[in-house]
């Protein structure tokens, strides 16, 4: 049985105060007093509101950055913070927009323990997984994932999902590696690097909900940038 104090949940956020206040309660319901590291790039006003919400929570560390610097780099910074706690053996990453449901976290932990995996990816596209997003976004995501699978060749079905569980060794490897991307595509870079290093990667099905508050910060520019990034990573890597 994994103990609460062995888990740290790393959450990137950009203008998500309303969602985060709900998410924190949901996480504590599953794992009372678990450690949470939030890496927030919000505007000063929004960040102040968030500070107010987490002020009385003893197990939350809020790291605030002064400008929006990407989901990927936020999670990496959160991992570095999480590693400082020697009790932390397992690290989750999850979105702050209520897309990911903390109820499903035990499924990740069980899978990691049962099959000796180093990393468990929450997958929307595994049998049993569900996505409640607009049709266009689902189609785009499926195409991107098929493309990434052909290009990067890791045997998983969801390269861009941000609900994951890592053991300490995998996180240590990632914080020591010089990851080159900073946005959502870091999720794919991580899978590629871990797989090449021989870490064992498993998947569990998850249900992903469309956000109710706020808006997505992934735009066409980021998609195009990401496409060139993966091509470069695949064909230029040492
Ligand atoms: N710290 C930080 N978090 C971010 C940034 N961009 C996105 N996020 C967070 O990453 C998660 C996924 O982003 P989202 O905009 O929902 O992307 P989508 O789900 O692909 O539409 C959300 O929890 C965002 O708040 C960023 O630049 N910095
Ligand atoms: Mg989202």
Please sum up the structure shown.
By secondary structure, this protein is α/β, with parallel strands linked by helices. It has helices at 17-30, 44-54, 71-83, 105-115, 135-152, 168-176, 186-197, 220-236; strands spanning 7-13, 35-40, 60-64, 90-93, 119-123, 130-132, 164-167, 201-205, 207-209.
Jot down its keywords:
binds guanosine-5'-diphosphate; globular; about 240 residues; two-stranded parallel ribbon; alpha/beta; 8 helices; binds magnesium ion; Spore Coat Polysaccharide Biosynthesis Protein SpsA, Chain A; about 20% strand; 9 strands; seven-stranded mixed beta sheet
List the helices and strands and how they pair.
Layout (H helix, E strand, L loop, with lengths): L6 E7 L3 H14 L4 E6 L3 H11 L5 E5 L6 H13 L6 E4 L11 H11 L3 E5 L6 E3 L2 H18 L11 E4 H9 L9 H12 L3 E5 L1 E3 L10 H17 L2
Parallel strand pairs: 1-2, 1-4, 2-3, 5-8, 6-9
Antiparallel strand pairs: 4-7, 5-7
Helix pairs in contact: 3-6
Bound molecules: guanosine-5'-diphosphate and magnesium ion.
Q: Assign the structural class, choosing from mainly alpha, mainly beta, alpha/beta, alpha+beta, or little secondary structure.
A: alpha/beta
Order of helices and strands: EHEHEHEHEEHEHHEEH
**Gyration radius over CA:** 17 Å
Strand content of the residues, in percent? 15-25%
Care to describe what's here?
The protein has 238 residues and is an alpha/beta fold. It has one domain (4-236): Spore Coat Polysaccharide Biosynthesis Protein SpsA, Chain A. The protein has eight helices and nine strands. The chain has helices at 17-30, 44-54, 71-83, 105-115, 135-152, 168-176, 186-197, 220-236; strands spanning 7-13, 35-40, 60-64, 90-93, 119-123, 130-132, 164-167, 201-205, 207-209. A seven-stranded mixed beta sheet has the order 3-2-1-4-7-5-8, with helices on both faces. Helix 3 (71-83) crosses helix 6. The longest helix has 18 residues, at 135-152. The protein is globular and about 45 Å long. It binds guanosine-5'-diphosphate and magnesium ion (MG). Guanosine-5'-diphosphate binds next to strand 1, strand 2 and helix 3.
């Amino acid at each position: 049985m994994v103990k609460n104090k062995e888990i740290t949940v790393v959450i990137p956020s950009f203008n998500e105060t309303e969602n985060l206040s709900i998410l924190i309660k949901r996480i504590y319901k599953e794992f009372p007093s678990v450690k949470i590291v939030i890496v927030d790039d919000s505007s000063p006003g929004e960040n102040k509101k968030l500070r107010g919400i987490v002020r009385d929570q003893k197990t939350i560390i809020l790291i605030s950055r002064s400008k929006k610097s990407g989901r990927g780099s936020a999670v990496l910074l959160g991992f570095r913070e999480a590693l400082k706690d020697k009790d932390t053996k397992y690290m989750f990453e999850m979105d702050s927009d209520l897309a990911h449901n903390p109820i499903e976290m035990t499924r990740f932990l069980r899978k990691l323990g049962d099959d000796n995996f180093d990393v468990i990816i929450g997958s929307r596209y595994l049998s049993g997984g569900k996505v409640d997003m607009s049709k266009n976004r689902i189609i785009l995501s499926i195409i991107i994932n098929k493309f990434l699978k052909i290009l990067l060749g890791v045997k998983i079905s969801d390269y861009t999902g941000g609900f994951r569980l890592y053991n300490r060794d995998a996180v240590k490897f990632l914080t020591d590696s010089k990851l080159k991307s900073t946005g959502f595509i870091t999720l794919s870079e991580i899978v590629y690097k871990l797989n090449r290093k021989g870490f064992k990667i498993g998947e569990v099905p998850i249900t992903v909900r469309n956000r109710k508050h706020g808006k997505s910060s992934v735009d066409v520019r980021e998609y195009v940038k990401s496409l060139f990034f993966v091509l470069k990573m695949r064909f230029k890597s040492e």
